[in-house]
Write a structure and sequence with these properties.
281 residues, alpha+beta, 9 helices
Length: 281
């Protein structure tokens, strides 16, 4: 890393040592990274390291073309149309079966999508996490557009750093860590608009988790978080409909899928009984 001029100029590297057995503290690390940015930026775009961003409309980007500049232009143009400091700007996610998977501009990405080599992220496993991006609309979009929130929606997005809302550090390792942030923004009344020319692509790689997370514990934390958001903001989300129920969970792990279904059934009961504030952790 030291040999990279870009890293030396723009990156701040920190080492953190674990002092508990609660698993990989992903939300703490997100907060820590944003708090300790060596150069405070106008925009913040949290993105996992196995994603490669792309942006712009040039089908043949030439020398001097920079993703950062193209995405920044997309953000600033969107701000002229959606002038709300409590709006996050969604960056559609995609995935492919190899790594690195680099599509520098939207036309190049669309070529890969039409050829079947690239697809919306989690399309084959947990489509509800990103379905509300409305990919067919994005393929033809030339301007930002608003989308609705539904439970399980966990898009990638950029927002103004000065209005940054911390990630909930009660979620660690894996499970609802990023989704809890989206949930809280919606509880607070934030809006969501999709950037028309920016995206990020996840490349396939080996699973690097040494152990499975404690799913029941995760779901207890989810219920407790929902209770907290109800107390603070009187927010209760739309839940997945029964029509989609049997299509929601296709991760190949029957035991974990059953945990997920039990969670949704529990939340359905709470919603139908209008007892949101009585959820227990």
């Amino acid at each position: 890393m030291r040999s990279s001029a870009a890293v030396r100029e723009h990156a701040s590297v920190h080492y953190m040592f674990a002092n508990s057995s609660d698993g990989y503290p992903v939300n703490h690390l997100r907060n820590f990274a944003i708090e300790h940015m060596s150069c405070r930026t106008k925009w913040t775009f949290p993105l996992d390291a196995d994603f490669v961003p792309g942006a712009g409309t040039d089908p043949r980007p030439g020398q001097g073309w920079v993703v950062h500049d193209q995405m920044l232009a997309d953000l600033e143009a969107a701000r002229t149309k959606v002038d709300d400091k409590t709006t996050v700007f969604l960056v559609p996610g995609f995935e492919c079966d190899y790594f690195p998977c680099v599509h520098r501009t939207k036309p190049k990405l669309l070529e890969a999508v039409s050829g079947g080599a690239t697809r919306p992220v989690l399309k084959r496993s947990f489509f509800l996490a990103h379905e509300n991006v409305d990919y067919p609309q994005w393929y033809a979009a030339s301007a930002p557009y608003s989308v609705r929130y539904d439970f399980f929606f966990e898009p990638y997005y950029a927002g103004l750093t000065e209005h940054y809302v911390e990630y909930n550090e009660g979620f660690s390792f894996y499970g609802h860590d990023k989704a809890s942030h989206t949930y809280e923004l919606m509880a607070r009344g934030w809006g969501m608009a999709v950037l028309p020319h920016s995206f990020a692509v996840h490349g396939k790689h080996e699973d690097n988790w040494s152990a499975k997370p404690d799913r029941p514990a995760v779901y207890r934390r989810i219920a407790a978080h929902m209770r907290e958001m109800f107390y603070k903001y009187k927010f209760w989300p739309e839940l997945p409909s029964e029509h989609w129920f049997n299509k929601i969970f296709t991760d190949g792990d029957a035991e974990q899928a059953e945990f997920k279904k039990e969670l949704v059934r529990f939340l359905w009961e709470q919603l139908s009984a209008r007892t949101g504030p009585e959820i227990t952790s």
